[in-house]
Amino acid sequence: GMQCHLQALLSLYKLFCPELVTITLPGKIKNFFRNSEGPWKAAINTVRQRNFPVHQPLGLGTAQPQSRKRKWNAQLVVPASSANKANLEKDRVNHADLHGTSQSFPVEQLQTFSQLLENIHHLEFPSQMASVITNPLLLHYMNCVKDESVYLRLYFWLNHTLQEECPWCVADNHQNEEEFKIFLETVYKTECFLQEGFPSCEEFLYKSLPLWDGVCCQSQVLRLVSWIPLSTFPEMKSQLYDPLAQLFFTSSLYFKCSVLESLKELLQNWLNCHLFHPESEPEF
Q: How far out from the chain centre does Cα 105 lie?
């Protein structure tokens, strides 16, 4: 299909070698390629505004500026059913008639572990996978089901949120650092609960560590590092050790100790995960 990256390549071909492209392309100019200097310019502007604040002129009117609410703030709660109780009961009866004794249990009514055990074959994950990471019962259910599509849905949402909300990767987003800290802390606790790291967090760290200043969300970032799966030494060196080394040799003693503690927990987590699976150990 006419996807953005394909249109961008075809536009370049048509610009320099028009005889090679015979199809019609949209005339509207789009920004197909992201500017690699964006994060650096955003960091420079943040420092400039911090040291030389510019007073905004007062405008006429009483309208208050609208604050940008995080999408995942609302998604972290299990959504209630949009139907009323009568319609919900009717749907459950119809579902039972069509499929015998099989009935779906509303996930928003799941409150206790005994309910989970009694209805474990009649549960469905909510449409908002973000709500799973804050619900221990759904995390237990996630461990029992082992459905690959559930993990893919969770990884897709998590990867998108980490990339879109990262304060040091997104321009003019440093004022939301506290919210991002809470979010990273929630993700870390979920990894500890499941005893495994998320591939989305691994990808996020490898992409963002070269841009990280070592100060923003320091504790949360280093905790996520402790759940990165170990790979070969050349890969770990280029993607993890080198970015951390640039900060390690120019930082405070506290930061050095925090990095060493994180790497120690990384090795400890890897040993715990592979204690009963020695055949899956990578070659270093």
A: 28
Which residues is 123 bridged to in the sheet? Answer: 105
pLDDT at 160: 86
Compute φ and ψ for 123, nearest 5 degrees: -100, 150
Alpha carbon distances (Å) from 34 to 8, 10, 11, 122, 262: 12, 17, 16, 45, 32
The predicted model scores a pTM of 0.64
pLDDT at 175 (0 to 100): 66
What's the DSSP call for residue 239? I
In residues, how long is the chain?
Answer: 284
Q: Which helix (H) or strand (E) holds 140?
A: helix 136-145
Q: How far apart are CA 102 and CA 125, in angstroms?
A: 16
Alpha-carbon dihedral 109, 114, 116, 120, rounded to 10 degrees: -130
- In angstroms, the CA 121 to CA 89 distance is 18
- Predicted confidence at residue 33, as pLDDT, reads 60
d(Cα 133, Cα 194) in Å, to the nearest integer? 10
Q: C-alpha 35: how far from its chain's center?
A: 22
